[in-house]
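If you are new to this repository, start here. Below is one unmodified record pulled from the training split, so you can see the exact layout before writing a loader.
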Amino acid sequence: MDYHPHVHLVVPGGALNPLRRQWKTLRGKYLFNEQALAQVFRARVLAAIREAGLALPNAVPSTWIAPCTHAGRGLPALKYLSRYLYRGGYWRATDYRRGRRTGHLPLPGQQDRR
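And here is the target side for that same chain:
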């Protein structure tokens, strides 16, 4: 469970209309359907990996998950995002092998950044 590569993206709730030079705001909470987003993202990532000539393990999952979380607007969005951005190089973990101790572990490559 330690190694599970993933990406966090922040997507604005709208787009700029270049002809009108106007911001078009999203009507609902989400821009994309989660399953469709996951399928397209998986296809593009795997295509880029193959195009780069990199080897893929045989156990690449056939289904990827792309949860979309509405972070709110203004201050609620800032509070939500700050949990992931502040001290992002540390991971809160429970070590079940050592008596269920809970603590913060530096992520690989992050040890020297503090």
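Two things worth knowing about this chain: The chain has two domains: 1-70, 72-114. The chain has a mean pLDDT of 77.
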